[in-house]
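Researcher: Quick one. two chains, 1112 residues in total.
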Amino acid sequence: MLPTLLAELSAQNVVTTPLTQAVVLPFLGAIVVSLIPRGRAELHRVVALLFAVGTGALTLSLLAGFDRQDSGFQFQVNRVWISDFGISWHLGIDGISLFLVVLSGFLFPLAMVAVAPSHDPKPYYAWLLVLQGGCIGVFCALDLFVFFVMFEIVLVPMYFLILGWGYADRVYAALKFFIFTMFGSALMLVGIVALTFLNRDGVVEANQARVATIQSEMATVQASQGLSGPDTPVDPAIAASLAAGEARIERLLNPKLNFDLVTIAESQTVTDTSTGASPFDWGAARWIFLAFALAFAVKVPLFPLHTWLPDAHTQAPTAGSVILAGVMLKLGTYGFVRFGLYLLPEPSVFFAPALVTLGVIGIIYGAVVATMQKDLKRLVAYSSVAHLGFIILGIFALTTVSIEGGVVQMFNHGISTGALFLLVGMIYERRHTRDISSLKGLQKSAPILAAVFTLVMLSSIGLPGLNGFVGEFLVLVGSFLTRRWFTVVAAAGVVLAALYLLWAFQRVFHGEPDEENADMADMNWREGLVMAPLLVLIVFLGVYPKPMLDRIEPAVARLVSHVENHSDYTEPAVATTGVGVDAPGEDGG
Amino acid sequence: MLASLWQQLSDSPVPIDSVDLAWAGLAPVMILIGGALLILAVDSLVPRRLRPGSYALATVLLAAGAMVAAVPLWQRVQDAERGPFATAAGAIMVDGFSVFATFVILSAVILAALSFDGWLRREEMDGAEPYVLMLLSASGGVMMASANDLIVMFLGLEILSIAVYVLAAMHLRKITSQEAGVKYFVLGAFSSAFFLYGIALIYGGTGSTNLVRIATYLSATVLGDSGLVLAGLALLLVGFGFKVAAAPFHFWAPDVYQGAPTPSVAWMASGVKVAGFAGLLRVFYLAFSTYRLDWQPVIFVLAVLTMLVGSVLAVVQTDVKRMLAYSSINHAGFILVAVQAATAAGVQAALFYLAAYTFMVAGSFGVIAVVSRKGDIGTSLDDYRGLSRDRPVVAFAFALLLLAQAGVPLTSGFFAKFYVITAAIEAGSSTLAIIAMITAVISSYVYLRIIVAMYGAGDDVPAPRTIPLPAAAGLALVISLTVTMSVGVFPGTLASLAERATPVLIPESDPGAVDPSGVPPGP
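Model:
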């Protein structure tokens, strides 16, 4: 069975497409790593790194080969997986997912280099590789089913990473993480299946006109032969054409199920134009959107579903936190863009006010709670809640600029928060505490670490000239057009971010180090090597974000016009001129 | 003397009606029963004890032989020209459904037998009896799956059950095993009585016990008062509900699962459940499809109750066997969701689920049998702490099987759940699909607790212990894991097999058979 399968796969050129490779390579690596005998500890690390770096290189080649003019999906591969259910291995990326794929490509090897596990390296690296494959899979999937499989599969490795290599309270954190996210996605599965059935009904309805045409043509042919209903014509050619007509009608009226995201999104057979505001008047599309939104809101996490996040972050090993904050939270925000705005535009517009509200609450709430944290890692975790609130605001403000800002911010948050978690991990490795009150004056004992921390922190705050500013600025500019007062409140969040991060920095790094903190080792060259690419990106994207924006903008513009076409929403005119797009680059430079 | 008697009979002017049997159609059952009797005979006639493991080997070979005998049947029923057929005067139906169920039941026999081998040796109870009982029980299960007559179904049910009562009580030195056996027997006898009473009522209401005739009668006749038939259906449902451990007929399951020998439980949870659901589908989906609107709501309620009980009560358990007992109740609820759909897709989903579930659950109980200690003890959650260190491969395999039961993608369990909720949504039962997924999340907590015990014990791990892994048990684990994972990635093959395994109702069609209108010969 396996050889025929492999032959089939190679005949269909599935394996030779870069996206399939980028998704499958890490999974393959996980298998290879788990086949290496337990005794060869050093090999596990090397092999795992090879696979992770290889995947990273593949994603960079995607970046290089990406056509910035094309607003559609590129590098597509579309092959049947489960034919009875119309499920196909459909992958493709556009400007929105490109940078998230690249982020997953290079953040994993960095996290692997940065921290070696304290024990059991084999399963550790195997799980990390599975996680990498799953994350890239989510961002590439253009089939609802493939997306769901990947979205769900990332739970397992993260669960085992927290459980196996986490800190004291890891059991509770791992369980909470798994149950929360699984609960969200359970309903999404129902939503996906319901959507495909509704889509099939819609296709049948859309086909009715063609069926009527064929039927009338057939009737004409029959009448010309002087036949009534069931008689078979004598002429075999006419009999054949009638039979073909019957077969066509049969096909048109009984279409297969279809899980293809692009087909369903572009045809928009499942629409909801119910005007009723109360849940009892809603059509199916809105309920389906809610099922999706719940899954994504847990993942983001959106207030009030965020409670798993601080626990999971605090208890996860450093690499786990980096990946969790850097990549996995984006599964939710990306889901909102791709499976909210693109797949279900009308319900997205309908629910946008609610989601924007939750996003803005998240910004303020995350910032306030972060201010009060005693644990450095928890503080960074809560800052994620705030930052992701910005992304949600940007996405559901529904202007080209704001969505663009949200996408940029997804990438930037991955870099700066990933870097922050790495730095906190370094401090913990040296001092075995993350308690802010027991850290003091680290600037004196570890000046390089302090400097790097400063830069990363400033990027996280959103200082102009660093990458964090670009995303936040675009979000605020874009959102101001449609959600003025929300934006005003959100802008206060920027100030709060400065407050909690600077205050924490002050307490940890300033002052005279006491005995315990005095002889803390500074950053070594390996750690420096890990941080270097992140620092370069932080500065480069802050000063010159144009290459990135150029690739994102066409896809976002297309998405916004897609939303406009399929709902009663129209984007305010100012936003499309692109005034805001180039501004941050000039400001920063 | 016999020859002259035969001569007389054939010369006799009065022809004697004899039932024409298509022996090939009964081959799997015959192999199972004949093999069981053969093993029993050999065991009592051979003076010395046979080499340990020979009975297990014989059982596996017999089950495999029965599978081989079923392959031509599958080809025949799938053949457009020959198709499914009824035999034994219309009492046995050989169709895709029955052959598929036969395959699944036989797989369960193989897995349970492999698990029995090492377990029996450890408990110093090696002998032929468990294997004989299991083979007989499996023959009853196959009969249930292919019964075309309620009486035959009852026979199958009883053959299946009585053997399992003994299997549950088999551990002579363990009082809980005795208790499990008695409890299962008493409650099971009750449910059999219900079942029989249901048959009687349905016979009273429709004038037949033959499923084809019942269906024909019900579709041709509008009953002025359908109370008798409905009461009969309700009683049948009690009987089936008991066998598949559906709430509120599930109370025996946790106690029996906990007390009974673990490999017996592997059989109970897989083979018995498959047979029960096969019978349920045959009776309700086929014979009483005209009463669909009456029984669908009942199954709806049963499914919801079963899923809730199975998931919520599993959370508070501390014994792994009890946890899995409740989780198997939850799985039964999922299959009931597919039954409730009462569509071809529903049948397909139920069969897929049963096939996938058989391998998951038999593998899981196989692990429990390995991890438990002599005396069949050591099944509490604490006994699993540090398993990832003591037996990393077993722990990992168990974790994968548990995740499959939770329905994590890339395992067969995910597709099983996916097909079930697809069938439910297609049939318009989105509510049921939502409830099902929520209970799936609740029960995933249970599986995670076991995984946490194995992997997250941390510093307070008990002292390392050596856990012997018998080769046969290892093989069973490899088989179940391979099937679970490969179906999880490429479900197409199993799904299309399940799709073609449609149950059909056709009257007796063998040439030379008795006239269907004639008096059906009693069994």
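Residues 263 and 322 of chain B are 14 Å apart (CA to CA).
Researcher: Thanks, that's what I needed.
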